[in-house]
Input
Amino acid sequence: MQLIPSLDLLNGRVVRLTHGDFDTARVYGEPEVVLDALDVPRGARLHVVDLEASRSGRPIETGVVRRLATRDLIVQVGGGIRSLADAQRWLNCGAQRIVVGTVAAESPALLASLVAAFGAQRIVPAIDVRDGVVRTDGWSRASATPLSEVFARIEDLGIEEALVTDIAKDGALRGPSFALYRELRALTRLRLIASGGVSTTSDVVSLSRLGNVSGCVIGKALLERRINLGELQARLATTNTIPERVIPCLDVRDGRVVKGVSFEHIRDAGDPVEAAMRYEAEGADELVLLDISATDRTASTALDTVRRVAESLFIPLTVGGGVRTIDDFRALLRAGADRVAINTAALRRPELLRECAEEFGVQAVVLSCDAKGGFATVRGGRELTDVDAADWCLRAEDLGTGEILLTSVDRDGTNSGFDLELLRAVTSRLKIGVIASGGAGALSHFLDAIESGGARAVLAASLFHDRVFTVSDVKRYLATEGIPIR
Amino acid sequence: MLPGVGSFAAAMHWLTSTRIDAAIRAAVANRAFLLGICVGHQLLFDRSSELTDTRGLGLLAGDVDRFEGTLPVPQIGWNRVTARGPLFDGVENESFYFVNSYAARGAADEIARADYNGPFTAAVQRERVFGVQFHPEKSSAAGLRVLRNFVQCN
Output
């Protein structure tokens, strides 16, 4: 995966525009100073956009490009290039590649002569897409040429790589358009450089798993220090050997599995030991057992159920519900839990997390965060607090938590998909893993939670109880979409 | 079987104060089969830098050091293991469940390797002494297979 830092230039300095409006330019400083601050490695490819040129149609920032080209960087320049002379001018400044947008979509003859004059390696078509339609002239116009034809022409010229931006995602820091790049797998053999919306390390990992994306342009996220190039490179090196996990959840009340919608309307769903054994046989990577009656009964969790489940299970078991003290925590571990999830008691007294981590090891501590409208709730979602869910998860990580079980109370039981915004808000700020919970209703939801939400594990209850999908259905699906699974 | 919970230093202190360390060495000298799991696997080596520099049982050559890198420590979860030898018969390329902050890297008697912030030793064997950094008892069918293979080695 090639990481390509991007600099937008205006009046010789690095800027970012909001929605392409020149009056909103935020200045980040001199290009060299910005590059040094970003730790761009030697030999890296650098994407430079001459904003004034894209407006006026004449190369402006030639001086800056000339200076950048003397560094050990592969510079590619874009912005209003509409003739052989423009392209020649940039190449004379030391640019190694020319990025063409409108020309690539609208002027096949000119694209062909650019390739004939400078070679296919030097020309990088940049295709801007919104809702499946190619946009040109600084996104203002919809092209009449269908996407498939634009790509076919590019391929015919011997070009092997194209930059593709979903403009709905650009600068929004909401993640790239995985769906678009996945769709393009069927449409073109070109290697794609993803651009737009890349805002977390996990976004880049997910792009690398798609197979047809060979590079990505990172702009705002680098300038805003959301991504560190060195860290990202290291993460890309190892992360694909670590499987993402699928976790069935047993909500247990009085020794029986139950399931409700938004924590209410509870109905019986069977014997926990039978369910646990079936899930392990289906390939579950872990089991979560939540005693949902415990918080109400002001009694400790049903230790007996935990004991029975743990005896018959050979995968890790996480238990939560009604854990108030270190003694509750210890009792659950002794009953056979590998990890214990805490919610209400930790919100009331955060130090409990640190105490448990010191006593039993950070790997045994799971923070269960039930979020509603972005805020943490207690007592099984019934009581809202004024604590921001993402802030709380971050604090829990500092106090001593091995992983976060993040449940969207709003989505729970609705089958409408995981809350991706909530997930991104938490996963983008934490180093420890997050288990996505609440809202699974379709196979694609599990993919979204990992790919776009940055979750390291996905959890569902009713979907598995009701046999809408088996655990192995979900894992098979994730594997075909390029997600490493066990 | 030498399981392991808690820190290397505490486990080693317990082994020496109960003189189980001497018993283990004597048993191994008498050609007993030994399987160390997690911290039990780490205890087989010369030393560990966990908390303070502590000498291990020294049955195997190598040091145990903390994971450093971008991935969160401790490692909690499944990881793919590439293995060879009788202990991994039938499960040479499977995922196993790990919970660890420390590991040996490139041990002389390595029979299995995984990657977490760089490659590390997932299992070792020297004659009748075996060690696995992961938890076979939590690694579902693949883990049970390793345990069965160990029993069949006996």
Notes: Chain B has one domain: 8-148. Helices of chain B lie at 8-17, 20-29, 39-42, 140-153. Chain B has a mean pLDDT of 95. The longest helix of chain B spans residues 140-153.
